[in-house]
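Page 47, continued from p. 46.
Same chain as before, 270 aa.
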Amino acid sequence: MTPKIRIRNLCKSFGPKQVLKNVNLDVMPGESVVVLGGSGTGKSVLLKCIIGLIEPDSGTIEIDGVDITHKKGKDRDLLLEKFGMLFQGGALFDSLPVWKNITFRLLYNQKMPVDNARQLAEKTLKSVGLTKDVMDLSPSELSGGMQKRVGLARAIASKPEILFFDEPTTGLDPLMCGVIDSLIRSCITNLGATGVTITHDLTSARFIADKIAMIKEGEIIWEGSVAEMDRSKNKDVYAFIHGHETNQQQKQKTTKRPKVVPLRTRKGTR
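Result:
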């Protein structure tokens, strides 16, 4: 089977600092891959290279077997229609109401009729546990967790083939982290999409990932399942796990995320 995403020998430097060093990674169709690593390891640069925000110095990136490394203009725009992205900070437009944020690409790129866009926004909000009463609010009127769910709704509104998640649980409390992890997993499954998540959060990685790729100093140093990660004798993998997990996280290793009740069913709660 052809990988949905194939990365070969990808390199990127900024001045004298080499950030990515011959990165190789395959993401198969329908697979949820987590690129796990600490701050400054190159995972954000890798994601930006894949989605075209940064052009690599060398190497190739293929989507469905097509080299997209240096595509620009209309070719790049067509490619972006396959992608949905949840940004770390939400990246919502405060000048637009929630429903226009969710359907922004469809309204302005594909000229979707306004009534259809509002209906789609309402349906998509429901799928991430929010009710239609937030549709006409500004993002600034929402809590951090609600903003993250609106960002997720925007990412899935066009039913993309590939979903990218940039540090999706950063800045959220543990309960909301569980909500977002559950929503990410269900969105990937329900859409039949391929997922790529970059994070340093081990608890999220354990819940989201079909496969984990550990990155260190710009190189993929290890790949495998969550179970294989926990058994790995790779010294860097072992050091990352045991150097970043608190005692509470150690206990959570053997437990599943709590079942998340959609917030729309909790009376008086958003």
